[in-house]
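User: I'm putting together notes for a lab meeting next week and I want to include a structural view of one of the chains we've been expressing. I don't have a solved structure, so I'd like a prediction I can at least talk through. The sequence is below, exactly as it appears in our construct file.
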Amino acid sequence: MSTPGGDGPHPSNGAALAQLVGEALTRAQGHAVTEDAEEVRAITDAMVRLLIGAPLHSDGKLTVVSLATEAGLRRNKLTHKHTGLKDLFYALVKARTSLFEALHDSARARATKQQKDHARVRAERDDLRGQAQLLARIVHVLEIENSKRKETNAALEQQVAAQAAVPDLTRRRRRP
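Assistant: Thanks for the context. Below is the predicted structure for the 176-residue chain, given as structure tokens.
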């Protein structure tokens, strides 16, 4: 999850954004490890774990109470001291929820379209099945008619053959 230049996480998702903000806040407070820097790091790490769905110390709900529990801090640290991080967390949760709702709406639209397509294909199948049955009946009728014609032709051929056996006396010349 790096940017094309390889200079750190890409802020396209909430967890990466929380991680970037935490690193920036820690650097802004100086290189010395202070209590505030440790709290910021704990909160942002907890945000990342909650947003990716891998909590270690809480119930995994996307609330400030769960965030504080996940970070190992009291809730008032988020509600009074690190309000910017609390607001960031809520913004990330809202963005994540909006994204999931958009994906859900898109999936619902796809499902509706698939249901319509399925109904259309079933109607076409039923129509084709009816046409196939009609063609089968037509072929059957034609076979019967063809069979009758063969019988008629056979009878005519027998009549012609019977007539061919009788010599035609009218054609013979008489001698004077």
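A couple of points you could mention at the meeting. The helical segments are 14-28, 35-52, 64-71, 75-81, 83-165. DSSP finds five helices and no strands in the chain.

User: Perfect, that's what I needed.
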